[in-house]
Amino acid sequence: MDTVAVDLGPRSYEVRIGRGLIGRAAEEIGDLLRRPRVAIITDENVAAAALAPLEAALSAGGIASAALVLPPGESTKSWPHLSRSVDWLLEQKVERRDVVIALGGGVIGDLAGFAASILRRGVRFVQIPTSLLAMVDSSVGGKTGINTAQGKNLVGAFHQPARVLADIDLLDSLPAREFRAGYGEVVKYGLLGDAAFFEWLERSGPNMAQGALDLRQAAVRRSVEMKARIVERDETEEGERALLNLGHTFCHALERATGYSDRLLHGEGVAIGCLMAMELSRKLGLLPQEAPGRLAAHLSAMGMKASLADIPGDLPGAERLLDLMGQDKKVVDGRLRFILMRDIGEAFVAADVPPEAVLEVLRAG
Ligand SMILES: NC(=O)c1ccc[n+]([C@@H]2O[C@H](COP(=O)([O-])OP(=O)(O)OC[C@H]3O[C@@H](n4cnc5c(N)ncnc54)[C@H](O)[C@@H]3O)[C@@H](O)[C@H]2O)c1
Ligand SMILES: O=C(O)C(=O)C[C@@H](O)[C@H](O)[C@H](O)COP(=O)(O)O
Ligand SMILES: [Zn+2]
């Protein structure tokens, strides 16, 4: 097992990454519990794959559990399901010293984490990420929240988990499309801050997608290490943490434009958004000419979406997409900020990007 410590003073926690963690759940979280009961929030797909083994492991360790099983998909990250989750936690008489478990992908982690953050003004929660995306990104760092009609993640809170258990075996049941989407966030780390990791991904990505467990665990560990170090330096995104948003200004506008539907998964949008951010950087004369082609070639080798043309159905025009970006949380004084790149592994925050250059990138697709 690998352990990555996230050092945030009183909010510090461990991310434990390995095989068989679900079967040892009682031992892995027992020390956090003040009484032997937990409330689990999950979705239907994850419940089918992982809820029974988790409940059995907890029960074998003398820990009682109750579970709320929500519909799968991005539209669950919404006011109605937040309200339902909080009401259910109250019905279960979850107390301030209890622990809520988020068992699922990023949708469940963001929703259950937000519910925990507002329940009785804040109860602790444990992330048990079950998708690649959740293992490498959403379970770590404490961003929780929901989408609204106006845009992505617009209501939420910073609420750090008390522990994260990333059981690599859970990826066996993850659909291939979801694995590739999660890989979009993995590639992001190489692009934003570690060229050697990107090169390793170019060599290892296809075998990882085929199921190589050691490669999967190594990718999760490196991603979590990178995210943990950034979050430790800038927990609430005053500065450097915005680098983790590489590709997301494009991605979030596209997710909103596709109605948070399965036309475009978040991680797919991140991969497309990273390529667009690279095109934008190249267009502005900041990034070597050949760099975007290198990412495009890797995404193609991984069988991933790489352009707007790969998104099924109609999309709004470039002007409308630019307009949707206006709700991005990186906006300052009404002006967009983008994460741009000087090279693979070297991203930075740019405040003065000409909208015309963004429109050109969007028009080129
Ligand atoms: N908080 C953060 O820092 C952060 C970071 C990145 C992404 N996110 C958010 O995460 C969400 C995307 O997360 P996601 O890609 O995990 O999506 P998701 O939670 O919808 O999970 C993907 C799909 O896979 C299924 N699934 C998950 N694990 C499974 C398993 N082990 N076996 C079988 N099926 C399984 C789910 O039911 C779902 O249908 C987005 O809302 C995004 O905004 C948040
Ligand atoms: O942890 C972060 O910080 C991130 O930006 C990680 C992103 O991958 C993630 O999608 C996050 O939810 C985006 O946050 P937002 O503040 O742009 O909504
Ligand atoms: Zn993301």
UniProtKB/TrEMBL annotation:
Names of the cofactor(s): NAD(+); Zn(2+); Co(2+)
Segment forming the signal sequence: none
Keyword NAD on entry: yes
Metabolic or biological pathway, per its Swiss-Prot or TrEMBL entry: Metabolic intermediate biosynthesis; chorismate biosynthesis; chorismate from D-erythrose 4-phosphate and phosphoenolpyruvate: step 2/7
Span of domain 3-dehydroquinate synthase N-terminal: 68-180
GO biological process, one term: aromatic amino acid family biosynthetic process
UniProt-listed Enzyme Commission number(s): 4.2.3.4
Subcellular location: Cytoplasm
GO cellular component term of the entry, any: cytoplasm
Gene3D superfamilies cross-referenced by the UniProt entry: 3.40.50.1970, Dehydroquinate synthase-like - alpha domain
Annotated NAD(+) binding sites: G106, V107, I108, G109, D110, T130, S131, K143, K152
Keyword tags: Amino-acid biosynthesis, Aromatic amino acid biosynthesis, Cobalt, Cytoplasm, Lyase, Metal-binding, NAD, Nucleotide-binding, Zinc
CDD domains: DHQS (cd08195)
Co-factor: note: Binds 1 divalent metal cation per subunit. Can use either Co(2+) or Zn(2+).
Residue ranges constituting the 3-dehydroquinate synthase C-terminal domain according to the UniProt record: 182-331
Function comment: Catalyzes the conversion of 3-deoxy-D-arabino-heptulosonate 7-phosphate (DAHP) to dehydroquinate (DHQ).
Entry similarity comment: Belongs to the sugar phosphate cyclases superfamily. Dehydroquinate synthase family.
Protein name: 3-dehydroquinate synthase
Protein source organism: Falsirhodobacter algicola
